[in-house]
């Protein structure tokens, strides 16, 4: 019997996103830190609350939540990222698994987040439905995705890899599939969530120099796929070319990025 689509996707994503886990944790994951902070403020994450990060990666959001006194849990497909998450949050209840089949009981959590995670699931709709299942009635759920790509500097870095990636299957959703507010609202409503609001968070990317920028950018699962298809030299060259307009006088880089969050009630 073959694996279910969600399992196959989790295996692939776990391998790709875990290839350069330490670079992701040390460099790239922090580019979303302002979004984590804004989301926790908006949803009112308080001491003693049961909190789940679905697609927790290397655990930065869980680490912040634990610092606020929450009881944290997480799930992700990438074993190498989870090893770092367990270092950061040794008291967390952290599992390797699929977003479409969360290893938690019904109505277990006061707060649930999915930071740039649901769109990578084999079935995003099933994954968000699972998030609703494990949330308590009335619990806050936040879904984070990319902001509108038009005019966003970070979107130019994403676009730089497109020629180096395998051709996507017809109709496959792109990285900005949920970026429009109507699409994001419809996604949440279809899962049975009550949409409270949609808000954008500016989260600029900073790198002290080009080698650090390249290490961070090549640590994503998308970059790993491009490297497998076209080679690391080509990926680094594409990133370096896309980064050039954003170099500062001191040799550092600053790239404007915006993420869109949907705040809902289970």
Topology readout:
Elements: H1 5-18, H2 21-28, H3 33-43, E1 50-54, H4 60-67, E2 71-76, H5 79-88, E3 93-96, E4 109-115, H6 124-134, E5 135-146, H7 153-160, H8 181-190, E6 194-202, E7 205-207, H9 210-217, H10 221-230, H11 232-243, E8 253-255, E9 258-265
Parallel strand pairs: 1-2, 1-4, 2-3, 4-5
Antiparallel strand pairs: 5-9, 6-9, 7-8
Helix pairs in contact: 1-10, 2-9, 3-4, 10-11
Key traits:
9 strands; seven-stranded mixed beta sheet; two-stranded antiparallel sheet; 266 residues; disordered N terminus; 41% helix; alpha/beta; 21% strand
Task: Note down, in words, how this protein is organized.
The strands form 2 sheets. A 7-stranded mixed sheet has the order 3-2-1-4-5-9-6, sandwiched between helices. Strands 7-8 form a two-stranded antiparallel sheet. 48% of the residues are buried. The radius of gyration is 18 Å and the shape is globular. With 266 residues, the chain is α/β, with parallel strands linked by helices. The protein is built from 11 helices and 9 strands. Helix 6 (124-134) links the parallel strand 4 and strand 5. Helix 3 packs across helix 4 (60-67). It has helices at 5-18, 21-28, 33-43, 60-67, 79-88, 124-134, 153-160, 181-190, 210-217, 221-230, 232-243; strands at residues 50-54, 71-76, 93-96, 109-115, 135-146, 194-202, 205-207, 253-255, 258-265. It has a single domain (5-153, 174-206, 257-265), classed as 3-Layer(aba) Sandwich (Rossmann fold), CATH 3.40.50.150. The two termini are 35 Å apart. 41% of the residues lie in helices and 21% in strands.
């Amino acid at each position: 019997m073959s694996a279910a689509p969600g399992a196959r996707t989790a295996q692939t994503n776990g391998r790709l996103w875990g290839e350069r886990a330490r670079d992701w944790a040390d460099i790239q994951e922090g580019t979303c830190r302002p979004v984590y902070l804004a989301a926790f403020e908006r949803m009112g994450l308080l001491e003693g609350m049961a909190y789940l990060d679905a697609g927790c990666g290397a655990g930065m959001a869980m680490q912040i939540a634990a610092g606020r006194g929450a009881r944290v849990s997480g799930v992700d497909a990438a074993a190498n990222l989870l090893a770092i998450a367990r270092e950061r949050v040794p008291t967390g209840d952290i599992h390797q698994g699929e977003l479409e089949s969360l290893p938690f009981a019904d109505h277990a959590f006061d707060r649930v987040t999915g930071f740039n995670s649901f769109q990578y699931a084999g079935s995003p709709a099933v994954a968000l439905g699972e998030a609703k299942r494990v949330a308590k009635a009335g619990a806050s759920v936040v879904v984070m995705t990319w902001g509108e790509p038009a005019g966003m500097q970070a979107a130019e870095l994403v676009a730089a890899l497109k020629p180096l990636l395998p051709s996507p299957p017809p109709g496959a959703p792109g990285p900005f599939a949920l970026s429009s507010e109507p699409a994001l609202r419809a996604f949440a409503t279809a899962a049975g969530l009550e949409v409270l609001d949609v808000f954008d968070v500016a989260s600029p990317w900073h790198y002290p120099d080009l080698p650090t920028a390249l290490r961070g950018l090549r640590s994503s699962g998308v970059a790993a796929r491009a490297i497998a298809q076209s080679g690391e030299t080509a990926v680094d060259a594409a990133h370096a070319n896309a980064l050039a307009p954003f170099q500062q006088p001191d040799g550092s880089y600053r790239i404007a990025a915006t993420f869109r969050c949907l705040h809902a009630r289970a």
